[in-house]
Amino acid sequence: MSGNGWLRPKKSRQKLRKRGLDNPGDLTTISSRSSIKNGPGVSVDKDLPPLPPVAPLQAHRLKYKEAHSRIDTQRGENRDYTALIHALGLEDPFDDDESWPRRERDEEGERPPGEPVVASLPSHLWTQIAGYLNPKDAVCLALASRTLYARLGKAPFEALRRPENASHKLALLLTLDRYLPRHLLCFPCGKYHLRSQPGCEKLQPSDALVRNPVFVCPNARNMLRRAPRHRIAHGWSLPFSLVQLATRAARFGPHYGVDVDALARRWKGKSGDSEDGWSHSTRFLIHDGRLLMRVVSQCFAPPNLSPSGQRLLLFSRDDYFPYFSVCAHWRDGELTQVCKCALTHVPEELPRGPQSIEAKFKNSLLMGPRRPTAATAPTLCGFCQPMRRCPKCPTEYLIEIKLSEVRNHHHRGGVEFRHALVVTRWSDLGDGSAPSTSLEWAACNGDQAGAGYDSFSRLGKRAISGIFEAKISSDNTGIPGRRIMSMNPGNVKGGDDWY
Ligand SMILES: [Zn+2]
Ligand SMILES: [Zn+2]
Ligand SMILES: [Zn+2]
Fold it and tell me: Could you tell me if 344 and 323 lie in one domain?
């Protein structure tokens, strides 16, 4: 097509050239291509400068084409992959790969050694820098390298040893927990003691704990520096060391502590040498790194108890504490009133006189053993039925009247059921870090460190009892959804009406 002619490169303007001034009529046509050869028949005047082999524009084009021949004409991409990699890699190093752990790379020595830089600052300057840190961090800085230790000297360690810095010392010791599975941090001493019975530590009565301690401690009998513990019931308490062991085992591994299921116990309450009629069972589990405890306390309750009879049933004569398990705030609020109200709902039972063996046999043939039925299960009122939550610590209570089996060895003939007051308590005992830093532990014990604890804002709608029962029961049914009310709605403190 003739229209395509404009696309063709223009021919050199120098296609015509005068041969010489002496022979003006004789013109020689020199095409740009034929001039390369300078073939015969073409005479070049010696006075003129030699002709370049190609016209300047064409020469430029050829040069450009050669330089960019590896670029894709359609997409403009560089088809030369070696050049591509060259351009990417040689001048700039590759970007940091975040998937590669930085610490490993540092250990491999990729980072230039910083010792000369550290050593370039004089001692007094490093001491000034350490002065901005708290005592624990200053010691960590001094322990970071040999040079820093030489620059900072013993001053940070001496500062940490002062009694007013005890909390900083504990914080430093706690960072070593991971490296000492056979030891346990003792808080009264501020030292790690060797565990005397590793893996076999268990919940035991307070007097037995003296004989089988978790570790041998010089402060064990020092009443001024008592090991932290939480009262479960009369004669039984949970030492903080067991909270440490249970949470450590969950955090680091089984040889760091004890299995949380091994802490479950059952016992009958005693006052003096005789039984007080109450029986208790504990169960524990770890949730979110914290130790949760459930204590079920129960006692057979006769109907129509007088007020003094109720008190006799609920409170110990030894210390006027309730027989059942309570948190430190049980005196403030309605907890004991709720228990007394529940006791008024115990239904009248049929009088049970002495039966002859024949009558018993006849009865068991006719009716079978006495079993609880829906008709005999008592109902509670609107005041004592809802669960109660202590507003000042993560503890919840459920008070029930239940039919319970009487284990009586003298009557082998049949199974007997009676009504019992059952008080179930759930508590969150914290993460086992330290009695002063574990907020839940401090709150349950009523310590100063847990003074501002507000269970309703912290727990919200997630009840401890709900979490506990959902985890324990295999079918995940949990306890029936009960309303949770505050144990102390009036926010009274130090009231006398608990008794
Ligand atoms: Zn100790
Ligand atoms: Zn009631
Ligand atoms: Zn409480």
Answer: yes
29-32, long-range: CB < 8 A, 24+ apart: 32/58
Predicted pLDDT at 57: 72
Residue 412: pLDDT band (50, 70, 90) is low
pLDDT of residue 284: 96
The full DSSP string for 60-125 is HHHHHHHHTTTB-TTT--B--HHHHHHHHHTTSPPPP-TTS-HHHHHHTT-SPP-HHHHHHS-HHH
Task: Kindly give the distance from the C-alpha atom of residue 175 to the centroid of ligand 1, in angstroms, as a whole number.
Answer: 18
Q: How far is the CA of 159 from the centre of ligand 1 (A)?
A: 21
Residues with CB in 5 Å of ion ligand 3: 327, 329, 390, 392-393, 395
CA of 379 to the centre of ligand 2 (A): 9
Q: Which ligand is nearest to the CA of 325?
A: 3
> Does residue 343 sit within a domain?
yes
Residue 153's domain comprises 116-168
Among 259, 281, 296, give the residue marking a domain's end: 259
